[in-house]
Amino acid sequence: MAESPTFLLSRLPHQCQAVDPSFITASRRKKAANRAKSSKYYDINKTEINEAKRISRTRRSVFPTVGRAERILSRKQKPQEPPLKAAVATSTVAEQRESNRIIAATPLKGIISGTTASSSCTPPSPGTTSAPASKAPATALPPSAAPPRSKMAVLADRIPMMWEQFGEVVSNRPLKEYLTNICERFAQLQEEDLESTRTLFEDEQEKLYQVRELILRYQSKALNLEGCTRVWREWDTLRARVDLYLRELSELECEAILGPGQLVVEFRRKTLAFQRAS
């Protein structure tokens, strides 16, 4: 007996059965409408969206954050301290009982020895001298028992060290003296060896950029630990000073690029920016 076509179609896999064309059309229309809404929203607010993306990228580059997976892994690896509440409570109760027993037994000892409890509080007679009470020698804590220092205290101690390192880079000169020395060295090198003047500004900028990179690293740590506190502001003051030296040095380099001898001529005429400022 031959089977009907409807029965044969029902036995086919679900993937082989025909799909309703209206369902496909409705799905495509819905996706197209969603795309149109997204495009319209972006066209209206693209300035704010791009600005938010730029700020987010800048913040991630300056203040790198730890990912969620790394935070979870660090929490799992953190050793857990054993519960000490029961032991501390037991020792506290035992010590309290012992102290109460000693206090209660003290007046009885005075009565048994023929003295009253108030006799210990009376001052000695003028003709007698009382032996000075022996004091227990003060024991200093070993170095291992000293409390650990906080991370912010360590960052605060590194600020004077970084000021010294910055002073070594600029030879402990103020800004005007530092720039004057650079111009004099440039003029001397221009007379002796013109090729060596190309690396003068690059070498000085490289030294300052290395100091600046360390400052930004420590400043970022201070910001992540406690925010804009006193330590962070001290690091920011040092960072601003290094940026000032870098900015003035870049202006001198631009003057030197204009032409051979241009920087030396303006320096001798005292028409450079740092010379006019004074």
TrEMBL record:
Organism encoding this protein: Ephemerocybe angulata
Provide the residue span(s) of the region labelled Disordered: 115-149
The highest taxon in the source lineage is: Eukaryota
Taxonomically, what lineage is the organism? Eukaryota, Fungi, Dikarya, Basidiomycota, Agaricomycotina
- Low complexity: compositionally biased ranges: 115-143
Name of the protein:
Uncharacterized protein
